[in-house]
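Re: the multi-chain job from yesterday

Posting the exact lines I submitted so nobody has to dig through the queue logs.
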Amino acid sequence: MPDNDAGAFSAFIEKLKRLGPLDEADVAGISNLPSRIEMGRSGHLLVKEGQRVEFCCVLLRGYACRSKMTREGRRQIVSFHMAGDILDLQHLFLAQADHNVQLITEASYAWIPIKSLRAAVRNRPNIGEALWRDSLIDASIFREWVLNVGQRDSKTRIAHMLCEFAIRRSAAGLGSPDHFELPMTQEQIADATGMTTIHVNRMLSELREQGVIRRDKRIIEIVNWNQMRQIADFDPAYLHQAA
Amino acid sequence: MPDNDAGAFSAFIEKLKRLGPLDEADVAGISNLPSRIEMGRSGHLLVKEGQRVEFCCVLLRGYACRSKMTREGRRQIVSFHMAGDILDLQHLFLAQADHNVQLITEASYAWIPIKSLRAAVRNRPNIGEALWRDSLIDASIFREWVLNVGQRDSKTRIAHMLCEFAIRRSAAGLGSPDHFELPMTQEQIADATGMTTIHVNRMLSELREQGVIRRDKRIIEIVNWNQMRQIADFDPAYLHQAA
DNA sequence: CGTAGGTTTGACTGATCTCAAGTTTGGTGG
DNA sequence: CCACCAAACTTGAGATCAGTCAAACCTACG
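And the result, structure tokens for all chains:
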């Protein structure tokens, strides 16, 4: 289905097509954006908080996260990302990074000059609209995370995070939502849900004991989606996946 | 300084001017947007989660908040808003509301048809850019809130919320950041910081006992900004106020 | 096959919540 | 202008969810 041509950007273009109508010229406009492709290992920092930014970064393969730190050195992961995601669209109009962007697996990614991206947005309103919608969904997910971290108990928080990851992954054409490998460590899950590694471990064990999920290393199988959705208080409406 | 003409939208236009360059035609384009002005009392619900939306709402006077609920009925406030703020710009490209928008004081506000706003954005790139930047700052604030709620202890959380409110208010030309009246109840502060009313009350008392703030009813005076910023772990960079 | 990173388990601690009751405040109608 | 009422705020005591500290166990990779 995807992967017609469009080269390295195919996952990105497929994603934008899901966000809004693109004609051939729009697709060409994206394919022809200047870019530099790089690869990095897990842990590689792509953007650092405070930095002046002149490129946007599109993830082509692998997984990444965005995070912020408190003065005391506690880390909050604010989002996870997968192939096709644009990692820092905010830099289109905000010159200074307010958080970190980091790989959580081996990955490849493309740097696109902000200038070219802005030109594309001005010249091709369809591209602008798709990207803008992407940034609005990004914000909607942050709101859900505020709710998740602020109001839900720890088991629900983790379950919610797993549901979101499963659904987004599947929507991005990366495989079944019932059975998949988690790219993140329990420490990263802890930093994303505002809890400790130890408690993440215990809650994952409880989910297993309850029979909602099965686990083998990082492989997660969601045995009972109905029950899982219930436990997670998960309603995918906030992901705004097109009807 | 504001309030040149521009009528009801003056606060909104002033805000957009801070977000990006607008020429006279841009300002006229905004002033001439069709709109319906209404007033409401504290508690009035402007937008309800799940609703299909065809208007965006600009706050002209008073205060509002946006919130989401868990299935169990716990409420998370995800942002506070003041005169000049656009309350639900996400509806520009997302048809269905993923959260509630509600007045927290008596207020007046203007409904602008999405269609007209989209046309303005397409026809006048400066307007589009200012609004897009606004939505990106909105998202940056959500990220900070995820960090705040996820990683900071309760006293720091409240102090951070107070700092943010003081600075945004002052940047919007609504008065000094040192001395101001809070429009929100302690229950609303609790819902915004993910804690209970009771604990909010105790932490506010501690801040007073420490001598960082003074309080008289809802009036807050920040006695020592240096100490307050320290306690709050507050760095305003995430607000992306222009240099 | 050694080592570092990741995961698991146990015992104890503590920040924050819950429950309960009382006080103050602000708005409304008489 | 005062009396009343609901909402908002305050205080105390006990309960609990999740954190901290400590240690062992995997397991993937060099």
